[in-house]
Amino acid sequence: GAVVSQHPSWVICKSGTSVKIECRSLDFQATTMFWYRQFPKQSLMLMATSNEGSKATYEQGVEKDKFLINHASLTLSTLTVTSAHPEDSSFYICSAKGLAGVNEQYFGPGTRLTVT
Amino acid sequence: GNSVTQMEGPVTLSEEAFLTINCTYTATGYPSLFWYVQYPGEGLQLLLKATKADDKGSNKGFEATYRKETTSFHLEKGSVQVSDSAVYFCALSDRSDNYGQNFVFGPGTRLSVLP
Predict the structure, then answer these.
(1) Which residue of A93, A98, A100, B86 could cross-link A36, Cys pair, CB 3.0 to 4.6 Å?
(2) How many contacts (CB atoms, under 8 Å) link A and B?
């Protein structure tokens, strides 16, 4: 149980275009989803927290107009990188937390974004 | 604020060697502690966890004990295998409100096991 998927697993896009990454909880309802960014050989940095049906809460330094997060249902959250630039190239990982499993997050496999 | 410190890597061991990866934390309250493993090109997988002092988490031969007096959660394995080569992240979770939680990761320790 507690499986989280991400799509796509990797994507290459041209500078200036927008890319949408989906995060789905497959077998549970995720009241809260988290988006992380991981640079090569570094740890995960929390970008934002999204609760179903409400606006995402962004961490300090994360541009909310650039990284659009939507959590429209209890099983789906999306991260859209708008007007992508090469410096946005990174590994993006989502995680989900349901009503059960207090103090535990279930992580997706990650999406590798390369902006050329 | 909350923080997690891990021993710096990379750690290189021969197969069947004993592994210790140190992890210490700073937190207010009583956090839950986790070890996650990340294999090359993949996301994070929960390896083990402990939710209160003196709890021991164990999985796949790995174990770690929640030591409140030393604020530590060191990861150990008696005999590592080549397949254990990965990056290991120590993390804590401090539930701060009814919806979110303050989840903090350490910097990660890269382990390479040689045959």
Answers:
(1) A93
(2) 57
